[in-house]
Design goal:
The protein is of the alpha+beta class. 16% of the residues lie in helices and 29% in strands. It has one helix and eight strands. The chain has one helix spanning 2-22, and strands at 38-39, 45-47, 53-58, 66-75, 80-82, 84-86, 100-104, 110-114. The strands form three sheets. A three-stranded antiparallel beta sheet has the order 1-2-5, with no helix packed on it. A three-stranded antiparallel beta sheet has the order 6-7-8, with no helix packed on it. Strand 7 and strand 8 (110-114) form a beta hairpin.
Length: 128
């Protein structure tokens, strides 16, 4: 009886594997990691981003905290430049769920972009 149960399990496992392969359920190789942001002139860091992303204002006059409720402009270029990053701010999700990057919107307004709008890895960007 033991060999009958074992044979049934092996047959079921083989059938599941065949089914997964035929349905395309087998995991594909993972995509390569995003390229890092890179240093530029005048203490600016360049990163690839999603064109048209909003740039959010700052809380008060301290220029240190992003205001997630106030859009001050948009970033239509890609790549774009950033001064620095702030962690432990309002939740944005993604691999760095509380990270925002300080920049200047296309209209000249100082503000922050959500890390989720930046496709490059932002770890190399210095802290504000």
């Amino acid at each position: 009886m033991f060999s009958t149960v074992r044979a049934a399990r092996i047959t079921a496992a083989a059938a599941a594997t065949v089914l997964a392969v035929s349905l395309g359920v087998v995991a594909a190789p993972s995509a390569s990691a995003a390229d890092n942001c890179w240093p530029g002139e005048s203490n600016r860091w360049y990163c690839h981003n999603v064109p048209g992303s909003p740039v959010y204002g700052v809380v008060g006059n301290n220029h240190v905290y992003p205001d997630p409720d106030t859009v001050v402009g948009y970033m239509n270029s890609d790549p774009s430049w950033f001064y620095c990053k702030e962690d432990n701010q309002a939740w944005v999700g993604g691999p760095h769920p509380t990270r925002w990057l300080m920049t200047v919107a296309d209209n000249g307004q100082l503000g922050f972009m959500k890390d989720t709008a930046i496709t490059s890895e932002t770890d190399p960007v210095p802290n504000c």
